[in-house]
Design a protein that fits this description.
With about 475 residues, the chain is mainly alpha-helical. The chain has helices at about 1-20, 30-60, 60-100, 100-125, 130-135, 140-155, 160-175, 175-200, 205-230, 245-280, 285-325, 325-355, 355-360, 370-380, 385-400, 405-430, 430-435, 440-460.
């Protein structure tokens, strides 16, 4: 009888080990590397197609580049809602997997996709009412018309990007970042190929750029759905007899809503910055500076996307080990993420300091923005290393279910500090170059707040966790 019980126990233990997620057992450094590399590659390609999009539009006309730059905040808002909801879903799924509650993880996936579909429908409806947005920045009818042509198409057909983001996060929550990479690569490559064909070969201009974007997003969505539904995963996405669950949705938005607000703030910040430049500094080159802002945010994504790839991979690891109550693995993952983030941004700072003229020149059709762009790139990039630490702390807050702290940090950096600082500098010095220093001031303030709150969180909720195994 003892042998039978012992054998039964051993068999159950082996079955349990076989089901256990690699995020609780693979060496932390190797785990972060293996999960980050596919995400970094896919996000770099994603960033590349944003840059290529602006590059081809700039070759079409300067007004087209300016229109796309002014449209960027609304596109950022769509991404904010999509990514924020997906982050909440990711955190929910990872925590439930870490706690061994697989059925709840399944429910989190289906409710998350439902929320993303509803969000896409809302933006599609808003796509019919965007003309007043462009009138905030310019009275030029040609510029306004180009902006409406581009942005309305992106909004009407936004379902592709929303569902793709959700499926990617479902795969990431299980540590399957390689599959997540495939969905982004396919969509990005399609967009890059179609851009010059639509814009120039078919003569569709700025509308062609928008059509190429949404076709890439919808193809990416199709691949993502095939990968989620077509394989046997830990998380089962199913809509048979589906009904929205209030408790699950509330838990998703507990992390997701602050993340949405946090990322939407970027949209508000860019809009506010464009208004300061275009209206307050109109007589000293402020209108052309809005193109610099648009180019900067597209190009800087080539630096920030690898950072987001690492931190997004770490979020699942941090959330899983917090759910599994393993303090040493949690803290080791945080330290490795922070060091990696700082190294990435140090490289980014060097690139922006050494080659700003070459970078901005690729988007300057008639030589009007290169000089101002060089100054902007060199000044703003001084804040990159500070941003590395802030983003690491922000992702940590989200992973541990403390998304409000991330939201406050983002509000502090981009609204409470950055825009007022930009306005004060614009009024005090009345030149565009002074405005760029507001980025450094804001990042420094966010860094101080982030470390204060992380220290409190560690003492309150992390320090008391069991040590577990730090491997």
């Amino acid at each position: 009888m003892e042998d039978f019980n012992e054998n039964t126990f051993k068999k159950q233990e082996e079955e349990m080990r076989a089901r256990q997620n690699k995020m609780g057992h693979m060496p932390v450094g190797k785990l972060i590397f293996s999960m980050s590399v596919p995400m970094v590659i896919s996000m770099l390609v994603q960033a590349l197609y944003n840059v290529v999009d602006s590059y081809f539009v700039a070759k079409f006309s300067n007004d087209a580049l300016n229109a796309v730059s002014l449209a960027y905040p609304i596109q950022m808002l769509m991404i904010a809602v999509g990514v924020g909801t997906s982050v909440g879903m990711n955190s929910y799924i990872s925590r439930k997997l870490g706690a061994g509650e697989n059925e709840r993880a399944d429910k989190g996936a289906s409710n998350g996709i439902f929320l993303l579909a509803v969000s896409a429908l809302a933006f599609a409806a808003l796509g019919f009412f965007i003309t007043p947005f462009f009138r905030l920045f310019s009275d030029k009818q040609n510029l306004i018309g180009l902006g409406v042509d581009y942005l309305s198409i992106c909004m009407w057909f936004s379902l592709g990007v929303f569902i793709q983001l959700g499926c990617e996060r479902i795969l990431q929550s299980m540590g399957k970042t390689g599959l997540s990479m495939v969905t982004q690569l396919v969509g990005a490559v399609v967009n890059i190929i179609l851009d010059p064909i639509m814009i120039f070969t078919l003569g569709m201009g700025i509308k062609g750029a928008a059509i190429a974007t949404v076709i890439g997003q919808w193809i990416g969505m199709g691949v993502a759905l095939l990968l989620v539904f077509g394989k046997d995963h830990e998380v089962k996405l199913s809509f048979k007899k589906f009904r929205p669950c209030k408790e699950t949705i509330a838990d998703i938005y507990r992390v997701g809503l602050p993340s949405i607000i946090m990322q939407a703030i970027t949209s508000v910040m860019i809009t506010g910055m464009n208004m300061i430049l275009a209206r307050v500094l109109a007589d000293v080159g402020g209108e052309s500076a809005t193109s610099i802002v648009g180019v900067y945010f597209k190009v800087q994504s080539m630096i920030f996307m690898p950072l987001f790839g690492v931190t997004n991979a770490s979020m699942s690891i941090l959330a899983y080990n917090f759910g599994a109550r393993n303090r040493l693995r949690l803290m080791k993952a945080w330290k490795i993420t922070l060091i990696t983030a700082v190294c990435i941004m140090a490289v980014g700072t060097a690139i922006f300091q050494l080659f700003p003229k070459e970078i901005i020149g690729m988007f300057d059709r008639d030589g009007t923005i290169t000089s101002g762009g060089v100054a902007a790139f060199r000044i703003i990039s001084l804040s990159f290393i500070l941003a590395a630490a802030s983003i690491t702390n922000s992702v940590t807050f989200g992973a541990l279910g403390k998304g409000v702290n991330s939201m406050i940090m983002s509000i502090l950096r981009q609204l409470v500090v950055l825009l007022p600082a930009a306005l004060i500098l614009a009024l005090a010095f009345h030149n565009v170059e002074a405005v760029w220093w507001s980025f450094f001031i804001a990042e420094f303030a966010a860094l101080i707040y982030g470390f204060i709150m992380l220290s409190r969180l560690y003492k309150k909720e992390i320090a008391s966790l069991p040590d577990g195994a730090a491997v």
